[in-house]
């Protein structure tokens, strides 16, 4: 066995995978990735600042949007060090403890984003299907309780499966599929019994991501049914337009995560480039696109951003 193989199997450190075959171009590749991370931070901070400083935006819909922006901001922070570290040449490996911690934050924030999107779907359902009781149903106290529930659901259900990663025996080459750590990537290298991780992990995906997606779909079926009952065509269009931003946010979150899950489950023999592309899309696409979507599609946010930067409306 070669020295590199011995290191990979017996070490408690893992090799991060950047862009195979393009190592000599990492400096150039780092430019768009640095720009994406800068846009993620500036865009989500701008949304948070606008919501915080504009009294007219202190409404349930925008409180949930602030939760989404904060989640996206944290997702960017959780992966920036390893992704840009590889491209800038000062990170090549990651310790098991750091890998486990990063995995916890990535998966926890994914569950949190899914939960926030579900809460936003509930908000749209109440606003369209029961508008007269909107303010009495979604009070500040209830929004705070929803936020605490989302935080607990996303952070307290994951530790059993994540902590167990610390006690697995990793006897296969310690080469990760991405520039960051994922639970499914770590258990792929383990020679220990991983049935608990596989079953519990699948149960988490079903009870969080899949259940949230189904409930979001049901909420929009009910919204569509209510909208079609409106006599005025203009009112129907106006009601549906309030959902466009949320539908776009749901799409940019669920499409990449479904693709990455399918690749990890059934595409083990695909090109590493497929894993790299889907992995980075899963991590960076929602945090990048959500501020853009809401700044363009939500009139209140767009006007406040225009005033913030002194844009003139033509």
Please provide a written account of the structure:
The protein is built from 12 helices and 2 strands, in the order αβααβααααααααα. It has helices at residues 3-10, 26-53, 60-88, 96-129, 134-137, 140-156, 159-163, 183-187, 195-228, 233-266, 272-297, 299-308; strands spanning 13-15, 93-95. Strands 1-2 form a two-stranded antiparallel ribbon. Helix 2 (26-53) runs parallel beside helix 11 and helix 9 packs antiparallel against helix 10 (233-266). The chain is globular, with a radius of gyration of 21 Å. It starts with a helix and ends in a 6-residue tail after the last helix. The relative contact order is 0.14. Mean pLDDT is 87; it is low at 1-10.
TL;DR of this structure?
The protein has 314 residues and is mostly helical. It has twelve helices and two strands.
